[in-house]
């Protein structure tokens, strides 16, 4: 039953009763209502459902349905069996520039698509990037995603990937996602993020100081790309200038990338996870079964329903857990 657990919920692998083939298995995100309310995440959960229900892109996970009962809210999504990019990166220690280029290019196309709808993602990291059976990335976990016309001021995300303007509460927008691309590019090439410390505040201090260690193994062109993403002045940051995302696609580091063929998934991926069936979970860490009182449909308790917008009443008869 992997795939995993989170702060106030878990993801279950489920099967559509009576279905066969590649679309018979799904990932179902199960979020406990009382924890959502306690952690003040109602707005984020509703935003995740709203955004995922309106986007469709080859490098973004698909949302098929949402439900609720008195205990939980549920999101039924495509099951992506290849595991997290984090797992594959740790296994390899670091990626070559060619491997990094392939995966960073898919991320850029996904963000470019989201930004065209004024959606900022705000939680880019290897743990939120899943490999499908062909080795292509799918962006998942839209809990911090938000539709923003200009700027927003909420402090959210993972410390190592936060842009300076988020830390300084100076208002942030699409440029924060491009900063995170720079952090991720560095991490894939080097094996660890450019800013790390034992405490979040230590990480924030290093981000604001802007000091980055550049390993000798990093070639000048890769360094120029990362530096362009990690420009503390967001008005001069790659992807956020007058040319927008096209400036990224035109950067010399991406020379030779056929962006249209990549978006059509016509290029062979550098890592193709071994999978044997639609319910193969070998690329995810084994998770204990949830206690009986957390299994969907087995407990009823009073919890607000109206605050979770458009989560329909759940029907269990077509799912197996």
Automatic annotation (TrEMBL):
Gene3D superfamilies: Phosphorylase Kinase, domain 1, Transferase(Phosphotransferase) domain 1. It comes from the Eukaryota. One of its GO terms (cellular component) is cAMP-dependent protein kinase complex. Residues 255-321 form the AGC-kinase C-terminal domain. GO terms for molecular function: ATP binding; cAMP-dependent protein kinase activity. Its EC number is 2.7.11.11. It catalyses: L-seryl-[protein] + ATP = O-phospho-L-seryl-[protein] + ADP + H(+); L-threonyl-[protein] + ATP = O-phospho-L-threonyl-[protein] + ADP + H(+). Keywords: ATP-binding, Kinase, Nucleotide-binding, Serine/threonine-protein kinase, Transferase. Residues 1-254 form the Protein kinase domain. InterPro entries: AGC-kinase_C (IPR000961), Kinase-like_dom_sf (IPR011009), Prot_kinase_dom (IPR000719), Ser/Thr_kinase_AS (IPR008271). Transmembrane segments: none annotated. It is an enzyme of class 2 (transferase). Pfam families: Pkinase. This is cAMP-dependent protein kinase. It comes from Armillaria tabescens (Ringless honey mushroom).
